[in-house]
Specification:
Tetramer, composed of 2 regulatory (R) and 2 catalytic (C) subunits. In the presence of cAMP it dissociates into 2 active monomeric C subunits and an R dimer. The chain has twelve helices and 16 strands. The chain is an alpha+beta fold and about 325 residues long. The structure holds adenosine-3',5'-cyclic-monophosphate.
Length: about 325
Amino acid sequence: MFKSSFMDNAQSSSSSSTTSASATANTQIQSESPTPGLKLNAERRTSVSGESLQPNTFDDWTPDHYHEKDPEQLKRLESSIGTNFLFNKLDSDSKRLVINCLEEKHIPKDTIIIKQGDEGDYFYVVESGNVEYIVDGNTVNSSGAGSSFGELALMYNAPRAATVKALTDCHLWALDRLTFRKILLGSSFKKRVMYDELLKSMPILQSLTTYDRAKLADALDTHIYEAGEVIIKEGDTGENFYLIEYGECTVTKEGKGLLTTLKDRDYFGEIALLKNVPRQATVTATKRTKVATLGRSGFQRLLGPAVEILKVQDPTAKHD
Ligand SMILES: Nc1ncnc2c1ncn2[C@@H]1O[C@@H]2COP(=O)(O)O[C@H]2[C@H]1O
């Protein structure tokens, strides 16, 4: 019954690539969920093998957890998470569906909501309270009202990348795996789906974790340049870093001519951002070229260990 409106939001799946979660361990929740009928991950074994990152397209799919929300719940949802980026990209039918598939959870302080290494079954949005994220025993960050977590395992069919613990009593909304994949992957997480193959295949990004790659994908934009177009001009102020998805570009410098030719999976534009200097060369598309661009603030925040590799590979060291 939901078919026609869902199909507008789901990207059609053309990829045949699949990844399988290796973890099969049952997830444990260390504090009883007070919400009847909602088991969190407890005693749950989810089979996720054979799914790709592409959003699912189950033509005859009906959500398992569909419960019309009462007016009081709807009002709270609208004011707390209705304006969240996850939901404001949805058309009204999809938004209504997602909202009605959300399950309410009251989580006591100190509850382990997600355990690193487990399989994923739910995605969570925080209405109130704070949670912390623990990777390999170290607290890496925390988040509060309006944030969300638990998407990585559902997107990439990977084991949970972090343990998530309630720092305070929390009021959460949980979305089941299939509804997440069916609706949110094709809309709210579309950029991650779009850039996944590119980022995974870029040699300089190999040191990034799944989490790092996901955050990076959120910050990217796409541009297409036709043959002959100048992408970067020597002497200009640099604002973007570029990853080449496909195409070909030349790098030329006044007085030196052609320095190099760049192709698929190469990058450029890093020197001005790394050293805070003007553009050191001109980059021109010689074929139709599709690039993913990352702005200055994203470059500083999101490239993580890849920045060190960029510094080591600084090409200006060779030709200056
Ligand atoms: N630094 C981090 N590394 C990994 N996961 C994180 C981090 N910070 C927040 N998270 C969230 O913690 C979640 C744990 O479950 P997932 O791997 O499904 O998805 C993960 C992210 O949503």
